[in-house]
Write a structure and sequence with these properties.
The complex is a heterodimer. Chain A is mainly β. Chain A is built from no helices and eleven strands. In chain A, strands 2, 4, 5, 6, 9, 10 and 11 form a seven-stranded mixed beta sheet that branches. In chain A, a hairpin with a 7-residue loop joins β9 and β10 (about 100-105). The model of chain A has no long low-confidence stretch (mean pLDDT about 90). Chain B is built from no helices and twelve strands. In chain B, a hairpin with a 4-residue loop joins β8 (about 65-70) and β9 (about 75-80). In chain B, strands 2, 5, 6, 10, 11 and 12 form a six-stranded mixed beta sheet that branches. Chain B is globular. Chain B is mostly beta strands. The N and C termini of chain B lie far apart (about 40 Å). Classes of the chains: A mainly beta, B mainly beta. The interface between A and B is medium-sized, with 29 and 24 residues.
Chain lengths: ~110, ~120
């Protein structure tokens, strides 16, 4: 079945560690996005990519990094520079044009 | 800058009641798209509807209906005869169709709907 797969579902990070969240899609979508969800704040855009080997910062990119080496994959690294990383992270993809985005099931990151 | 505001943070109803979720948006673009998503406890956002700025026709899909009023910049969502399975967080979102938007969705804060049996 086509869809977006995020892994892991739960992730625990120690202070000072970098961690990478995986996002894979088999929908043949060009555009991919990473959002962060905090209680009461809706979803905020971290990074997005329209094509392979190109990506742009969103509204809250500080402390995060991404890569887009393959069309299907858009991993997000939460670096030690991100001071408050505990949140729910959602990956999305969409075709070009103003179509709806499809979302993965999310990764819940907790700092321990 | 775009902005989406969902006035209700939480709504609690009893099963079979009708409930309306409000959404007000701001954009300087004349061409834009509005969306509603449902987020059940599992976490994934489920697409419900897309509406473009030139189509103000209301839409009904089963127990769901949407009222788009450009004059008041509102895109409200009504669930008729609510059921426990409707309990979720609902998000309203906006994309402008301008060349620099890159399809970036601007989300409202979300409305937590709880339907009690």
């Amino acid at each position: 079945d086509g869809g977006i797969t995020q892994s892991p579902k739960y992730l625990f990070r120690k202070e000072g560690q970098n961690v990478t969240l995986s996002c894979e899609q088999n929908l043949n979508h060009d555009a991919m996005y990473w959002y962060r969800q905090d209680p009461g704040q809706g979803l905020r855009l971290i990074y997005y990519s329209q094509i392979v080997n190109d990506f742009q910062k969103g509204d809250i990119a500080e402390g995060y990094s991404v890569s887009r080496e393959k069309k299907e994959s858009f991993p997000l690294t939460v670096t030690s520079a991100q001071k408050n990383p505990t949140a729910f992270y959602l990956c999305a993809s969409r075709r070009t044009g103003n179509t709806e985005a499809f979302f993965g099931q999310g990764t819940r990151l907790t700092v321990v | 800058a775009q902005k989406v505001t969902q006035a209700q943070t939480e709504i609690s109803v009893v099963e079979k009641e009708d409930v309306t979720l409000d959404c007000v948006y701001e954009t300087r673009d004349t061409t834009y798209y509005l969306f509603w998503y449902k987020q059940p406890p599992s976490g994934e956002l489920v697409f419900l509807i897309r509406r473009n700025s030139f189509d103000e026709q209301n839409e009904i899909s089963g127990r769901y209906s949407w009222n788009f009023q450009k004059s008041t910049s509102s895109f409200n969502f009504t669930i008729t005869a609510s059921q426990v399975v409707d309990s979720a967080v609902y998000f309203c979102a906006l994309i402008d169709a301008g060349g620099t938007s890159y399809g970036k969705l601007t989300f409202g804060q979300g409305t937590i709907l709880t339907v009690h049996p």
